[in-house]
Every structure is written in structure tokens, then in C-alpha cells.
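Render this sequence as a predicted structure.
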Amino acid sequence: MIRREDGAGGKYMSEFLKKKIFPLIDSKAGEIALSDMEDSSDFHEDFVFTTDSYTAFPPVFRGGSIGSLAVCGTCNDLAVMGAMPAYMSLALIIQEGFDEEVFSRIMKDIAGWSERLGVRIITGDTKVVEMNAGIFINTSGIGVRNRHLERNLNIVREYRDYPFRWVRDCGLRSGDAIIVSGSIGEHGISMLLEREDLGFEMDVKSDVNAVWFAVRDGMDAGGIVAMKDPTRGGIAESLNEIAEKSGVGILVEEEQIPVRDDVMAVCDALGLDILSLANEGKVVMGVIDEMADDVLRAVRKHDRNASIIGHATDRFKEVVVRTRIGTEKILPPPALDPIPRVC
């Protein structure tokens, strides 16, 4: 029986893919295999390709909509490979009777973000169904090699051998710094507050955004060796993926993780793990330590809350958090999505 958690990100989804999908259809067209579970895969020396499906309840929320998620999320999966987003497909599955004003808002968000990013939507499909579906969106995207990526790779290779043509999430090495590009947990909390009347008075909204511009400037500074966008499973999932694939540990300083006080207060009150909450406009970067301050300054042009939160280490293979009181605890990959249907 297929369980909801098999498609919710985190440990169970990873196990599901490794047991049920990859043994049957694993392949690659370039250096990145399907089973590598990267955010995108290459099919040509100058192009990467990604696809994603979106289901969000409610479909319009504080700070965005499922349309914002579709464009930004797809382009973010390209950007964290170092690729400049260029082309997209758009497929819509819409419930019969779906509100036209809500649909209009979703389409305006799609148009607005694709224009801002300079991404052309060049093919698509539409289905209207009788089932209680609301609206689902599937997008695919193609990203292209660019001068920012080449500059970054050239700088990385001044420090060490880096055999990849794209920024890979297996590229971290001991001593590399870990940067988070802004405050975490805002998308997950804003979606929760949209659904439930919990009595919290706060102005938090989704962080849905395109990370390409911060990634572009970070690559111009140079030294980025690994990236993930921490959507389902939050930074806990992203850090564990990077650590496992790179064969190193990561030591995170809890006091350096950027979190809004009110978002943290809601998590504490509800027993939610802020590190496992979805984000839709952030990126986790591994950076050669000597270049970390330069990359941080570049990223902070887009979000002043960006922070160096830790370093890779060869002392252990896990992700470990050093708490504010000086103790250390292992941060495992999340098992379940604490707030489902947020992306």
C-alpha cells in the first residue's frame, strides 16, 4: 500500500524511491543519474532538466499561490545546480467548478514570476476533472550553462579538484562552510496559519521566491561547491542529503540559524521542528571556507538574514547541531512532513 509519507519528502520517500522506482527505471543522459536524486539532471553539457508537481492547500495563501510555487520551485531546482532558468512547461489539472477568481490569481502569479525570471513557458496541457482535486500543477524546466557558473567553478578549482560540470550536492568536503540564504520555516508556518485558527497574531507570510538571483551573485563571488533548496523536509533534509552524498559530517551552530522570533514561538508552542519545515525561497550552500565571507556578502544583498550556520567535518558522518547551551545532538533526516500539502 502506498502511504502519504512515501511522497512527502524525508526518509520514507527516499526509501520508497530506492526500493520501488530506481531498480526499474534508473538511467542517465549525462553525469547525473536519476538515482543520484539531485534537484535536476543534465542531458547535454550545457543544459539541465527538472520536473515537479505542486499541490497546495489553500491554493492562494499569504505571500503567494500555487502558481508562485510552480514557477519559483521549478526554477529553484535549476538554480541550485548553477543553471540559469530558461524554459518551462505548464500542465494544469483543475477540478470542475474551480473558482475563476482564484484561478485568475494563480495565472497572474505564473505570468509575473516567469516574466521576472525571463523564463519562457513554451508548452503545456490542461485537464478538467470531476474528482475533488482543487488544482494540481505540473511543471518541467530547462536551465542553461552560464558565465556565473563557469566563474564559480573556475574559482573552486583554484582551491581543489572539482570533477563536476554543475554544482552538485555531493561536492562538500571537510572544512567547507554552510550558508543558509535567509530565515527559515516561514512557508510552512504561513500555510499552517492559513488553514487553522490558532489565535497567533503575526504577519508572517510565505517566503516563496526565486533563488536564482542570490545564487547568481553568490557564484560571481565564487567558491560554491554544493547547493539544495530546502523545501519538503526543510534544512534538516537538505543538510542530511548533502552530508550523506558527500561522505562528510556537518556541524551546525544552532544560534547561527536565522529564524524569526515569532515563527520560532509558534513552533515551540505547537511542538514543531523548525528545521524540518518547508521553505520556498531559500537555498542551503556549501562553500569553500576561504570564500565563505565573500559569498555571504553577495547573498545578503538579497536577504540580510543570510548566515553561515556551520561547517563540514570529518569527525563524524552525521549532521550534528551544537545547541545554544553547548551540547551536541544528531539532527536526523525528517521521517514525515509535519505540515502536508504545502508544496
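Summary. The chain is about 35% helix and 25% strand. The longest strand covers residues 84-95.
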